[in-house]
Design a protein that fits this description.
Pfam family, one: DUF3485
Shape: flat
Oligomer: single chain
Strand content: 5-15%
Largest sheet: 8 strands, antiparallel
Subcellular location: Cell membrane
Number of strands: 11
Organism: Erythrobacter litoralis (strain HTCC2594)
Number of helices: 18
Number of domains: 3
InterPro entries: EpsH-like, Exo/Archaeosortase_dom, Exosortase, Exosortase-1, Methanolan_biosynth_EpsI
Keywords: Cell membrane, Hydrolase, Membrane, Protease, Transmembrane, Transmembrane helix
Length: about 525
């Protein structure tokens, strides 16, 4: 039996006979490629599903696969008027998607690897089924991007925006208040615009809903863009109003009552009210039925633009083989790169520093940065003759991976599930990341974070990722160090002065860290 006959026979037994015959072999090829991609990116899909299921910010994504399937189903009759045709330029996009996945995988940048996993599925459709079919599926394919959990990167920015809106409304309503970072002090008490209050959950869900409504309910691009802008702006403003409402209620009813009311109202009612207001305001401008497929299969089949692309048509078997070879290549390279492990000493210790001596670490409120999976951790306190004190934390990693990422959001200067709260942050001239921490309403701690890998020294998580990616591409293992210098504000000490004096005594930090890592 010939290979084509085998494919046709398997298509008949899989239910593909309900599609036009011209679709049988291309769909079988697409299924093979998607199966291989699923094996390659299985870890990313498990990680995404874990976030969809267990993180409230992304619970809405659980219904997106069903939405995508419905969007394709609505288009089925128009798609049947098209004939799939393998198209070799699609391999360029497919290769770019695999490269993005590879870079994210070896650099432990989940957003990149997950985005690459989704993009590879999208470009495989272009490669296997061709431009005409891809044009007919353009929105469902594009909507697949909402499968990638994103938004956590926006939390600090949204916290600050919410805080600014809240303090403006609080002062406007006649309540005396003082803002410091994300903390707002009022007569009823001190309020924090915490990560959970940033509104990111509301925003990402509204953008997913907005994209769907904009496509299915509007024909005018001007109306679509206006609606999407409303879906981005209204949740941010509404979240600031909600936070202000909590503070305003607390002035007369107390913090506990306001917090309980906010939890119930925001969790069960507020989101629905805002969605209803946005949809209600746009309802009169809807100019398209949601069940309208929005594509004309016959028009796509004879469109001059797609006729010009026919000269780039490819042999289905060749595109299938090339796609498989690409997948195998990046799989082997990623496996080799992810297994790299540098050599680190069996033991390390904090060094002596001229003008400073190690003293007992006995802070008023315990503070210990988080460094999950590090091979070594050191935490100590130095004091100089002037009485200035600096806490030093260093963690050393022989390799990076799941549960071993010094630059992960939950790692570093702000220990989770403690009394410490993040107040604000900034980037210093020497590249460090400075975080201001706050606890018990009165303890202020400044923490400067540095990463060291090879010649790189700085507080940028992004630059650390780039250094990691470069070394892993070259299969060059290097250890990674996390250094945090911290000082607590006292009546006789400012953190800035103490940290500056300590830095002057250590000399260049890069070689100073290397001496610790290379100690025996």
């Amino acid at each position: 039996m010939q290979p084509d006959a085998v494919l046709d026979a398997s298509a008949q037994h899989s239910g593909l006979e309900r599609f036009p015959k011209a679709w049988h072999k291309p769909l079988a090829h697409l299924a093979l490629v998607w199966g291989a991609l699923a094996l390659l990116t299985l870890r990313d899909w498990f990680a995404m599903f874990d976030q969809w299921w267990n993180t409230s910010t992304y619970n809405h994504i659980l219904i997106i696969p069903a939405i995508i399937a419905a969007l394709v189903w609505i288009r089925r009759e128009e798609l049947a008027k098209l004939e799939p045709q393998a198209w070799w330029p699609g391999l360029l996009g497919f290769a770019a998607a695999l490269l993005l996945w590879f870079l994210g995988r070896i650099g432990e940048v989940n957003t990149f690897s997950q985005l690459g996993a989704v993009a590879a599925l999208q470009f495989s459709v272009l490669t296997i089924l061709g431009p005409r079919v891809t044009a007919g599926l353009l929105f469902p394919l594009g909507y697949m991007l909402f499968l990638v959990p994103f938004g956590d990167e926006l939390v600090p920015t949204l916290q600050m925006i919410t805080a600014e809106i809240t303090i403006a409304l609080t002062e406007w309503s006649g309540v005396p208040a003082h803002i410091e970072g994300v903390f707002i002090d009022t007569p009823a008490g001190l309020f924090e615009v915490a990560e959970a209050c940033s509104g990111v959950q509301f925003l990402v869900a509204m953008m997913a809903l907005g994209a769907l409504v904009a496509q299915t309910c509007f024909q005018s691009w001007r109306r679509r863009l206006a609606f999407l802008a409303a879906c981005a702006i209204v949740p941010i403003i509404a979240n600031g109003i909600r936070a202000w409402g909590t503070i305003y209620i607390a002035q007369s009813q107390g913090i506990e009552f306001a917090a309980g009311f906010d939890h119930i109202f925001y969790g069960w009612i507020f989101f629905g009210i805002v969605v209803a207001l946005v949809l209600g305001g746009a309802w009169r401008f809807f100019d398209r039925s949601p069940e309208d497929p929005g594509i004309d299969g016959a028009a796509l089949a004879r469109a001059p633009l797609f006729a010009a692309t026919d000269r780039f048509a490819a042999t289905p078997a060749r595109t299938l083989a090339t796609s498989g070879a690409m997948i195998l290549f990046v799989a082997v390279w990623a496996l080799l790169a992810s297994r790299l492990q540098a050599t680190v000493p069996e033991s390390v210790s904090l060094p002596e520093i001229q003008g400073w001596k190690l003293v007992d670490y006995d802070p008023e409120l315990h503070w210990e940065p988080r460094a999950t999976g590090a091979d070594h951790r050191l935490l100590g306190r130095y004091r100089n003759a002037a009485g200035q004190e600096v806490d030093v934390f260093i963690a050393i990693y022989a390799s990076q991976g799941d549960g071993r990422e010094p630059s992960a959001p939950s790692e570093g200067a702000l220990p989770p599930d403690t009394m410490w709260r993040w107040k604000n942050g900034a980037n210093l001239a020497d590249g460090a990341r400075r975080d201001e921490l706050f606890a018990l309403g009165r303890i202020r701690r400044t923490a400067d974070t540095y990463y060291r890998r090879g010649a790189f020294l700085g507080g940028s998580a992004g630059r650390l990722k780039l250094a990691t990616i470069r070394d892993r591409i070259l299969l060059d293992p290097k250890p990674v160090s996390l250094l945090i210098l911290s000082s607590v504000e006292r009546s006789d000490q400012t953190p800035d002065a103490a940290l500056a004096a300590f830095r002057q005594s250590t000399g260049p930090l890069g070689p100073w860290i290397d001496r610790i890592v290379e100690s025996r």
